[in-house]
Amino acid sequence: MRKLTFPLLAILLVAAACSSTEDPPQVTGPTVGADDGTDGNGADDPVVELDPDDIRLLSRLVPFRDCDELLEHLKDEARERVGPYGLDYFGGGFFRDEIAVLEETGDFGDDAASEAEADRGTAGRAPQAEGGDGDAEYTGTNVQEAGVDEPDLVKTDGERILVVSESVLTYVDVSSGDPEKTDSIRIPEGWGHEMFFQGDRALLFTNGGTFPHPIPLIEGDADVAESTISPEWYPAGAAIIEVDLSDPDDLEIVATLKIQGQYLSARRVGDTVRLALTSPPNQLPWVYPSTPASEERAERFNRQLIDETTIEDWIPRYELTDDEGTTTGPLLDCDRLHRPGQFSGFDVVSVLSFDLDGGVDRGDGVGVLAGGQTVYASTDRFYVATTAWAGQEVQGQDGIVEWEENYTTNIHAFAIETDEAASYVASGSVEGSLLNQFSMDEHDGYLRVITTDGSPWNRQNQSETSLVVLEEDGDELTEVGRVGGLGKGETLFSARLLDDVGFAVTFRQIDPFYVLDLRDPENPEVTGELKIPGFSTYLHPIEDDYVAGVGQHATDEGRTLGLKVSLFDVSDPGDPAEVDTWILEGANSPVEYDHRAFQFLPDRGLAIVPFSLWSGQTNGAALLRIEDGSITDLGRVTHTPATVPPTSDCRVLGVDDLPEDTELFFIAQDVSIVQYCGPNDTGGYGSWYCDVIPLADLRFWGDLETMDELIDDLTGGRFDPDQPDDDRVEICWPDGGTHRYDIQRSLVIDDTLWTMSPTQLQANDLDVLDDLPVEAVIELG
């Protein structure tokens, strides 16, 4: 077998589905293929027969010449779809009729909501991070593609470590033998931050917060109910925050780009960062009929409203604040926006480009009128994919059947030349839905996609997974090869495609581990299959002929029992074997849902796997030696809770300080602490866990007038919701629970293992594996 040079993926996607009414192309069965193209018995290997009816192409994208053409197109599409309840459009392709039908039938399925959580994906061994002037050897973030970095909670260049945890960025100098925390800074925008850094600049990406976009109420006909839209509508916002690292003792936020929309993911190639986000149109002040007799008037009013819209009502906007002040405007130029030939909704997928050395600006973006969910990037292509569900015409039970059996995933490809803005290249479509970013992989000019067809809301478990090969043909991604029949009636749990070989894991009660031969892009094959109890949700190449899987051990009936690491021998693609296992009963690992939690050191044969027991009382990271076809448990790393007396420099608020009948009033009566922290207050409450609520968000924790009065009292009337600062309210809970010390990440600098939990960064000496002495503990925040 060809040497595995890239990492592998696995992550859970719950998508139990019913079969399509049209059977996809099938192979006659897995074979143990020899290089001569035979199955070893003199018979020809099975060949995929493609029916032209099975090939579904997304019409090519068409750029707009100017804003007038773009606005007229949007109005035309909206006029065709508007009704007495407006567009009934909630973003991502869902319409009121579809949701109403699902609510009426109750046929959501147990795990339908889980699909949105599967976007994060998993990865494997990363190249060394760039930057740093020393000679230290260090690991980087687990990534999908070598040379394509991904943002993370912790980054290093060998001389320093940056950690973002609970909205605080911490700088740790590790250039000498005495690690030192030099400074930390609170990030006021959003939550769930991740970052890149290089030289004197860090870029942090986040969702959360709001993007201000006031809209007026429009008076409707007397027979039409008043609009339920408030006078000020604040759509969801994403943000990019630039932090100046030039003075390690005084970190400073120097620029913030707020964007109307949702951040999907980012990638870095060289000094250039590409970021993808999806933005719904601005909510318009639709009116709704008060009685069935007034529906005609409501529809007439809403049509008039569409006629009066401007381009600002449809495309996303930005707000950039830096040392030159604040500027706002449309995120994309109209001639940089494209439309599919087939209507794909009113959302906008934007791909922005930034020079990491140049900092934050508008982002020089390009966009598509379509939704966006999944991001994958190679060194020269950036792909954004989204599942396209049936449109507004879906009604009744027949409509639900149509929806279940006819949905596709649209894929848009952008060229990412070095130091150039991204540009649109091609689009295509595959039947079914994707698991996550690792369902896509580009190799030798072909895009390989693993997709699962069938309804994720149906409990009949008749789904089926296929691999589809696409090739750029002009500005279309055209299907040239396919193999199906993977995991019939089962859920796809992981997938990874590496050069000429691929792997997929499906699960219902038993885990089928599939091996795929990808040498011939027009005729991919399933060459081997292994069935074992449990499942792997993360896969990683070990040595030349082994793959490690991290997931759950399970009974033959499918009941999970605890964390399991499997070692698969894939030297014979036709006969994969599980040759060793490591099991920790009653435990799970963040590796199961986040690839970046896994670390593997090939030169040491050492895997680092964070874990926590279901009881919540024990956590840490297991050190496993994986080499020579075996797994050896070498020991544990744990983070011991710090004992800090509960003190604070903030103003603790009692029940007498808070308005009655508000959530804060009732919280303050509990064992928790509610405190107001000004811009110069450090905050926190000893070792207690503290939730941080910016005052801009606190306004919506109760009656707006009441909360504004409280905020005025706390700040002396100086708070401005349009320009919030570091003022905040913190809600602190005793001890915070053991999850405060769950290890989330690991990295290695020379012979030191650094592990990160939400509260601390800890160094252990890797040269002394028998007792792993603690070299340093850095408190975060």
Based on the model shown, name its key terms.
single chain, six-stranded antiparallel beta sheet, mainly beta, disordered N terminus, six-stranded mixed beta sheet, 781 residues, globular, 9% helix
Structure write-up:
The protein has 781 residues and is mainly beta. Helix content is 9%, strand content 40%. It has seven helices and 50 strands. A six-stranded mixed sheet has the order 1-18-20-19-14-13, with no helix packed on it. Helix 2 (96-105) packs across helix 4 (396-405). The protein is globular, with a radius of gyration of 27 Å. The model is unreliable at 1-59, 89-133, 214-233 and 391-400 (pLDDT under 50).
Which whole number gives the mean pLDDT?
79
Low-pLDDT segments:
1-59, 89-133, 214-233, 391-400
State which percent range the strand residues make up: 35-45%
- Multimerization state: single chain
* Structural class assignment: mainly beta
- SS elements, strand count: 50
- Spatial ordering of strands, largest sheet: 1-18-20-19-14-13
* Gross geometry: globular
Helix and strand arrangement:
Blueprint (H helix, E strand, L loop, with lengths): L60 E3 L3 H15 L14 H10 L48 E3 L3 E6 L2 E6 L6 E7 L4 E8 L2 E10 L2 E2 L9 E2 L6 E2 L2 E9 L7 E9 L1 E8 L2 E8 L8 E2 L5 H13 L9 E6 L2 E6 L6 E4 L7 E8 L10 E3 L5 E4 L3 E8 L7 H10 L2 E8 L7 E9 L1 E2 L5 E4 L2 E8 L10 E10 L2 E11 L4 E8 L2 E7 L2 E8 L7 E9 L1 E8 L3 E9 L5 E10 L7 E9 L1 E2 L10 E3 L4 E8 L5 E9 L2 E8 L13 E3 L9 H6 L4 E5 L11 E6 H4 L5 H12 L12 E6 L11 E5 L2 E5 L3 E6 L8 E6 L2
Helix pairs in contact: 2-4
